[in-house]
What does this fold into?
Amino acid sequence: MISTESLLQKQVFTDRGVLVGVVYDVILNFDDGSVHGLLIKDTNPAIVKDGISISIPYKWIRAVGDAILLLTFPQRVTFA
It folds into this structure.
């Protein structure tokens, strides 16, 4: 089992090894006690428009270790 606190400040990488950003907070689902997603700050402006903070669904996570590796991530995140 992984504690939510242990996820904080970990770097997050795409499935292609590109840095997405750093975990700032964990989004919890209080109805069933599960982790819903991660709030990522200091995002990479090369893949996230303007380097703004984003939320990543927890189901996108492939592995958690010294860093977090994602199963999938869009090539570029933009907002209308």
About this structure: The two ends are 38 Å apart (CA to CA). The longest strand covers residues 19-29.
